[in-house]
Design goal:
TIM Barrel; 9-stranded mixed β-sheet; binds zinc ion; alpha/beta; 465 residues; 8-stranded parallel β-sheet; binds N-(aminocarbonyl)-beta-alanine; single chain
């Protein structure tokens, strides 16, 4: 059999195994794994001696080309997927937003056209549902048939995205039947709004008040309520961007009771803290996102949560806004700072560095957190998320020893600052393949806009049920 490409002698790492092997690729798929695979007809041999070969990263939480607070996130589907690829992430799940009164189909069509002709790697969508007063509950089932098998609901941002508990419960009853998965933004938006209004009335307008008006209790309360609603509905639930120990405790308790409850955290909550909000001048605005940064001691609790499977996924919540011009919109009022931060490029290195290179967990757990579990929970497995014959050849030749200092001067995201400026990581991708094509080689980008494909996903129940 002829192969297009062979990756030789790498240390192949999956969620369960580590072994030295060659990987052969034909027609975009992994076609053989073995030792001394014959090179005849292979148009390319990539030497991975001394390197790890990982399944491509899957980031299940990005916001590309997303309108928010009178502006739009700075990366579109071309620049965002390109930056992702530089960091070893070859699949993104972004969010199509249904605005109040709109059919869900409109959200899906809008985001499909944002991504078409732009995405450089494969992508899928969750649908954000902000209104279930019309026919949207049955439209959720239509989207599931289209391969949009997860829905984000908000317990925060009253008047914009927030749903009341009855609507959330109805949506959960719906996914309990369809096998889809609800992703929850869990913060008590009504209480937070009161605290925010009181802070503004007291003249507290600087960026750090964004964090000080969103207490950890507001997150933990909402996580607990979301779990209770899901349990009553008999549905699984996935909590997005979990930021603090109080909320983590709710997840741990629910999982100990055997409930199908899952949660992700993001690199910003593992590396940054409330201290960043004290950056000079208006610089704290660089760290304005929700949930906000927490006191530093929460970081190690989250790392331990990742190690012990109380947290199952690391995503980025990549939602970049430029410091100049975009974050500036809230110079005199923290509530007008667009919420979100950039991160899609550095997730793999930050988690490898802080997780594996620092000795907190092994490389198999790393793969599980950044690729395999995301693929399983969101219906992409086994096409994505592992290294197996028949899976897509989304592969990363990863140098576990290479050091890199993160900086806006060298990153590929279309944003004028880095949240992780000056942090040195150990472990960087050397070569990245998407469906068998080399898309990144060192500093060279070899992919092209429009080559990314929309992924119709199976349901949570089909893969995990
Ligand atoms: O501040 C954030 N996280 N912006 C993105 C939207 C969201 O809630 O995930
Ligand atoms: Zn959110
Ligand atoms: Zn988000």
């Amino acid at each position: 059999m002829g192969f297009d490409t062979i990756i030789r002698n790498g240390s192949v790492v999956t969620a369960t195994d580590t072994y030295t092997a060659d990987i052969a690729i034909a027609k975009g798929k992994i076609s053989a794994i073995g030792t001394d695979l014959p090179a005849q007809n292979a148009s390319r041999i990539l030497d991975a001696s001394g390197k790890l070969v990982l399944p491509g990263g899957i980031d299940v939480h990005t916001h590309l080309d997303m309108p928010f607070g009178g502006t739009t996130s700075a990366d579109d589907f071309e620049t965002g997927t390109r930056a992702a690829a530089f960091g070893g992430t070859t699949t993104l799940i972004d969010f199509a937003i249904q605005y109040k009164g709109q059919p869900l189909r409109q959200a899906f069509d809008t985001w499909m056209s944002k991504a078409a002709n732009k995405a450089t790697c494969d992508y899928a969508f969750h649908c954000i549902v902000t209104d279930v007063s019309g026919g949207q509950l049955s439209e959720m089932n239509d989207l599931v048939d289209e391969g949009v098998t997860s829905f984000k609901l908000f317990m925060a941002y009253p008047g914009v995205f927030m749903l009341d508990d009855g609507s959330i419960f109805k949506a959960l009853q719906n996914t309990a039947k369809s096998g889809a998965l609800v992703c929850m933004h869990a913060e008590n938006g009504s209480a937070i709004d009161v605290i925010v209004q009181q802070a503004l009335a007291e003249g507290k307008r600087a960026p750090k008040y964004h964090a000080l008006t969103r207490p950890t209790t507001a997150e933990a309360e909402a996580v607990g309520r979301a779990i209770a609603l899901a349990e009553m509905a008999g549905a699984p639930i996935y909590i997005v961007h979990l930021s603090c120990n109080d909320a983590l405790e709710k997840i741990r308790e629910a999982r100990d009771r055997g409930l199908p409850v899952y949660a992700e955290t993001c690199p910003q909550y593992l590396y940054l803290s409330l201290d960043n909000m004290d950056a000079p001048g208006f610089e704290g605005a660089k760290y304005v996102f929700t949930p906000p940064l927490r006191e530093k001691w929460h970081q190690e609790k989250l790392w331990q949560g990742l190690k012990h499977d109380h947290l199952q996924v690391v995503s980025t919540d990549h939602c970049p806004f430029c410091f100049k011009e975009q974050k500036e919109m809230g110079r005199d009022d923290f509530t007008k700072i667009p919420n979100g931060g950039p991160g899609v490029e550095h997730r793999m290195s930050l988690i490898f560095s802080g997780g594996v290179a620092s000795g907190r967990f092994n490389a198999n757990r790393f793969v599980e957190l950044v690729s395999t579990t995301p693929a399983k929970l969101f219906g992409l497995y086994p096409r994505k998320g592992t290294i197996a014959v028949g899976s897509d050849a989304d592969l990363v030749i990863f140098d576990p020893k290479r050091k890199h200092t993160i900086s806006a001067k060298t990153h590929h995201m279309r944003v004028d600052y880095s949240m992780f400026e000056g942090i040195q990581v150990t472990g960087m991708p050397d070569v990245v393949l998407s469906r068998g094509e080399v898309v990144v080689e060192g500093e060279k980008f070899l992919g092209r806009a429009g080559r990314g494909e929309f992924l119709r996903r199976a349901t949570y129940a089909q893969v995990n049920g």
